[in-house]
Amino acid sequence: MAGDTIFGQMLRGEIPFDEVYSDERCLAFRDIQPQAPVHVLVIPRKPLDSLRAADSTDSELLGHLLLVAARVAKQEGLDDFRTVINSGLEAGQTVFHLHVHVIGGRPLAWPPG
């Protein structure tokens, strides 16, 4: 089944989550293992394994995800924040459904890994 990940289960209402934002194209919720005081994930409702699975037909959706990430950061009271998209195991992706991390609420070091 397409989207058969923990995020797909969340989108189908099969498991609970702490929703931060929702619209017809995406969902944002608090990470269950936060790496900072604010750690929200923004996921598309369309099941895409990762950013590398997206193509030119997904341009509007990808832009929408980033705009929602900025909206969520503002909603959470963040002036400064980091957005992260991991693509692939070696990049740290653990759930293979595209997601944007919105992280903030403390100073963030660089490089991240």
Walk me through the structure:
The chain has 113 residues and is of the alpha+beta class. The protein has one domain (6-79, 88-104): 2-Layer Sandwich (HIT family, subunit A). Helix content is 20%, strand content 22%. It has 2 helices and 5 strands, in the order αβββαββ. The chain has helices at residues 6-11, 59-75; strands at 19-22, 26-30, 38-44, 81-84, 100-104. A hairpin with a 3-residue loop joins strand 1 (19-22) and strand 2.
Main sheet properties? 5 strands, antiparallel
**Overall 3D shape:** globular
Tally of helical segments:
2
Give the CATH superfamily: HIT-like
> Quaternary arrangement of the chains shown?
single chain
N-to-C series of helices and strands: HEEEHEE
Structural class of the secondary elements?
alpha+beta
- Would you tell me which CATH topology applies? HIT family, subunit A
Give the number of DSSP strands. 5
Overall residue-averaged pLDDT value: 94
Roughly how much helix do the residues carry, as a percent range? 10-25%
Beta-strand content = 15-25%
The separation of the N and C termini measures: 33 Å
Low-confidence parts? none
CATH class: Alpha Beta
Radius of gyration: 13 Å
CATH architecture assignment name: 2-Layer Sandwich
User: Strands of the biggest beta sheet: in what spatial order?
Assistant: 1-2-3-5-4
Our count of domains comes out at 1
Motif (Histidine triad motif): 97-101
InterPro entries: Histidine_triad_CS (IPR019808), Histidine_triad_HIT (IPR001310), HIT-like (IPR011146), HIT-like_sf (IPR036265)
Active site: 99
GO molecular function, one term: catalytic activity
